[in-house]
């Protein structure tokens, strides 16, 4: 499978359509991308095998499942050693409230995106999980007041 600079326009169209509707039938996908169903199926299989498509998922409404509060947290570690990084990363992976955790360059070490029921639930997560991770020196919390844009679709 070619790298991203070698994807042809049909591959890019397939990826755009699948990002918008991962449940589309192969027949409908083929029609929308001007392919035969077998050629469409082959291309999608190659895109999956090549790692361009990493999976399919249902997107849930956070409000309806009791996770309406979105929080970002900057985390500063007390030391920047491989052991501290790995300990923190492993703990973040285990925490169900953490949706994303990114090691970043700049004035702090990690940026966490979390979803919780309410601020009391976040306070519990902060006190019982986050600040108890060995190596955490400081956190800064940002509660989201309004989600202006939230998408899972990458420009292709």
From TrEMBL:
SMART domains: HTH_ASNC. One of its GO terms (cellular component) is cytosol. Keywords: Activator, DNA-binding, Transcription, Transcription regulation. Residues 7-68 form the HTH asnC-type domain. GO terms for molecular function: sequence-specific DNA binding. InterPro entries: ArsR-like_HTH, AsnC-type_HTH_dom, Dimeric_a/b-barrel, Tscrpt_reg_AsnC-like, Tscrpt_reg_AsnC/Lrp_C, WH-like_DNA-bd_sf, WH_DNA-bd_sf. This is ArsR family transcriptional regulator. The lineage of its organism: Bacteria, Pseudomonadati, Pseudomonadota, Alphaproteobacteria, Caulobacterales.
């Amino acid at each position: 499978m070619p790298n991203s600079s070698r994807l042809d326009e049909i591959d890019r169209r397939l990826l755009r359509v699948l990002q918008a509707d991962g449940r589309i039938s192969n027949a409908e996908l083929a029609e929308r991308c001007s392919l035969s169903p077998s050629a469409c199926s082959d291309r999608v299989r190659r895109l999956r095998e090549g790692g361009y498509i990493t999976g399919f998922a249902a997107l849930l409404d956070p409000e309806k499942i009791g996770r309406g509060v979105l929080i970002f947290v900057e985390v500063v570690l007390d030391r920047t050693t491989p052991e501290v990084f790995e300990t923190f990363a492993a703990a973040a992976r285990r925490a169900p409230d953490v949706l994303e955790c990114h090691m970043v360059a700049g004035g702090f070490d990690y940026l966490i995106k979390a979803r919780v029921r309410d601020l009391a639930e976040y306070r519990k997560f902060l006190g019982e999980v986050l600040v108890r991770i060995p190596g955490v020196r400081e956190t800064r919390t940002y509660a989201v007041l309004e989600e202006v844009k939230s998408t899972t679709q990458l420009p292709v």
